[in-house]
Amino acid sequence: MLNFEKAGGLVSAIAQDAATGEVLMIAWMNAEAFDETVRTRRAVYFSRSRNKLWRKGEESGNVQEVKEIFIDCDADAVLLKVHQLGGAACHEGYKSCFFRRLDAAGLSTVGERVFDPAVVYKK
Amino acid sequence: MLNFEKAGGLVSAIAQDAATGEVLMIAWMNAEAFDETVRTRRAVYFSRSRNKLWRKGEESGNVQEVKEIFIDCDADAVLLKVHQLGGAACHEGYKSCFFRRLDAAGLSTVGERVFDPAVVYKK
User: Fold this and answer.
1) In terms of DSSP H, where are the helices of A1-123?
2) Min Cα–Cα distance to chain B from A15, Å
3) Residue B36 is inside which H or E element, if any?
4) Which of A15, A31, A99, A115 has the most CB atoms within 10 Å of its CB?
5) Interatomic CA distance for residues B52 and B33, integer angstroms
6) Measured between CA atoms, how close is A20 to chain B, in angstroms?
7) How many CB atoms neighbour CB B118 within 10 A?
């Protein structure tokens, strides 16, 4: 169903807020992450930096309930429409990871900060 | 501003309909593609299969006018809010490349077909 060969066993995965349409984040999935996402209806990604499955929300509690799953024309990207528990997808505490906008004057933070990562991750 | 090192000189680029919020496609950008996108306000990607810049719409005329540019927390992904000329982003003639939905019964085509690729690309 998906072509995992084009990017070394991975496909791109976009999470979009099912209610508002806001694009929340982009990450990667291997076959195991995709299968678990489909089966459990919770978003599971593959962390390239940690080289293992990343069950979104396993630390913060901010899991993503998967409402719909779409696959693109090339079968190398997945779009998840999700309900983001806790209201923030970004580990920096913003609703969306795309919280910075590039304008003529440069980058500015336009996203809404929902939580303080120092409190949530207790690191 | 962007980290092109994490994926061999490339970052992910998502195009989203600026008016409706529909996710249209995902592709790649190298530094040159990103710079030209910012400068011209038209989406320019990097085609891995053709190993060159891909000025979206150069064949079909369906260019993407860039309304807003966002950068993610890791600085390895770009989100473009665009106006898609011709109404279809997908080379298969659909509004969005994510025109197939995975349900319990399998994949089904749910996207709207805007043009016939055999006519537009004349191949």
Assistant:
1) 31-40, 117-120
2) 10
3) helix B31-40
4) A15
5) 9
6) 8
7) 9
- Give the pLDDT of chain A (123 residues) as one tens digit per residue: 999 998 889 999 999 999 999 999 999 999 999 999 999 999 999 999 999 999 999 987 889 999 999 999 999 999 999 999 999 999 999 999 999 999 999 999 999 899 888 887 765
- Considering only CB atoms, B71 lies closest to which of A38, A90, A102, namely A102
C-alpha A70 chain-centroid distance: 14
How many angstroms from the chain centroid is the CA of residue B93? 13
Kindly list the distances between the CA atom of residue B66 and the CA atoms of A87, A102, B80, in Å, as whole numbers in the listed order: 28, 12, 6
Q: For B98, which of A25, A79, A92 is closest by C-beta distance?
A: A79
- Distance between alpha carbon A118 and the CA centroid of its chain, in Å? 20
Look-up of token digits 């891995």: B48
> For residues A94 and A101, is the Cβ–Cβ distance under 8 A?
no
Residues of A in contact with B67 (CB under 8 A): none
Q: Give me the amino acid identity at B78.
A: V
Contact between B38 and A102 using a beta-carbon 8 Å cutoff: yes
**Global pTM?**
0.95
Q: Which two tokens stand for residue B44?
A: 């320019």
Q: Are A113 and A94 in contact (CB under 8 A)?
A: yes
Interchain contact A11–B (C-beta under 8 A): no
B96: left (phi over 0), alpha (psi -120 to 50) or beta: beta
Q: Which residue type is seen at B103?
A: D
Stated as kind and residue range, the H or E segment containing B81 is strand B77-84
Q: Are A97 and B73 in contact (CB under 8 A)?
A: yes
